[in-house]
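in:
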């Protein structure tokens, strides 16, 4: 299920992108990689072409500012909403280097927190432009020279053998990767990860100011705006009307607040939407209704899922009644 060919995937991906990257745009330079990432997100067998494998992590390699970290943050949020077993933690190599330097136990005190977990490591292999050496990974500890980059790969390779994924981003090209690390480390990276090029110009000059990214709150699950994609495909006009209703109520709330009057209860918006949704159910065909139920369950929209199940039950009872009459 690629981004370009599935409006449900588009809706989910765009929803996550809007939260993580204000003004996120899809263009000719990133459309191909986003299509590939959406195949990975949905565990689509189509991903496993050109040597890629779903059982490996993602290694996004590209130039500075091409959007690698943003893409991985969107993937992280997508997994969170989907309650996917592949949800992963995040850590930058810069933070890892600093924390390693502060702890006497070194690696054991830092990476131990991520054992038996999927992990995304950002800024792997960052190069110091002045020295041409890796900026945060080549350090000296107690008089001993250490290569934190190789140590990380060795540690995460052990986790990979237990079934835990490691995702990486880097500004290095494949040839630079082979120059900076020994052959054994590069071989492990290739075994652990799908190496995916991310091309395009530096997007940072055009980036909009970002709000502090907060993890989704449990009570946000199933809110009205998030549920709109459930009927967007089948009844786009109804979804448009609902959106206009919500915007109207939001404007009315602003005026009411200015006059220091009690705010109207937001539940009324949800309830009116539920009424329209229930009224539309008998007109929806079985296959579409099944997709709708699956979508509701994925989004943990329990009330909507219950309404759809009751519609299935109503249809079964109606069919049974018809069969009884026919048999008589």
């Amino acid at each position: 299920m690629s981004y370009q060919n599935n409006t449900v995937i588009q809706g989910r991906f765009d929803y996550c992108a809007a939260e993580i990257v204000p003004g996120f745009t899809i263009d000719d330079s990133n459309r191909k990689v986003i299509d590939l990432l959406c195949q990975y997100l949905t565990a689509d067998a189509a991903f496993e072409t050109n040597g890629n494998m779903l059982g490996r992590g993602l290694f996004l390699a590209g130039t500075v500012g091409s959007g690698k970290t943003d893409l991985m943050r969107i993937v992280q949020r997508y997994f969170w909403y989907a309650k996917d077993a592949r949800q992963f933690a995040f850590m930058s190599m810069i933070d890892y280097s600093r924390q390693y330097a502060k702890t006497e136990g070194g690696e054991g005190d830092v990476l131990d927190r991520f054992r038996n977990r999927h992990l995304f490591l950002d800024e792997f292999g960052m190069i110091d432009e002045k020295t041409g050496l890796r900026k945060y990974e080549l350090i000296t500890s107690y008089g001993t020279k250490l290569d934190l980059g190789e140590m990380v790969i060795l540690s995460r390779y052990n986790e990979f053998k237990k079934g835990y994924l490691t995702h990486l981003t880097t500004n290095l090209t494949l040839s630079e990767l082979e120059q900076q690390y020994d052959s054994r480390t590069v071989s492990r990276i290739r075994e652990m990860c799908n190496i995916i090029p991310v091309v395009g110009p530096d997007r940072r000059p055009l980036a909009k100011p970002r709000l502090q990214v907060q993890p989704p709150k449990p009570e946000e699950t199933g809110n009205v705006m998030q549920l709109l994609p459930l009927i967007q495909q089948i009844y786009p006009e109804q979804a448009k009307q609902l959106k206009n209703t919500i915007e109207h109520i939001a404007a009315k709330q602003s005026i009411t607040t200015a006059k220091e009057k009690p705010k109207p209860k937001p539940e009324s918006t949800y309830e009116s939407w539920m009424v329209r949704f229930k009224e539309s159910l008998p007109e929806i065909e079985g296959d579409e209704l099944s997709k709708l139920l699956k979508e509701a369950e994925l989004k943990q929209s329990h009330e909507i899922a219950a309404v759809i199940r009751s519609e299935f039950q109503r249809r079964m009872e109606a069919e049974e009644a018809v069969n009884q009459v026919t048999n008589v």
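note: Residues 3 and 9 are 6 Å apart (CA to CA).
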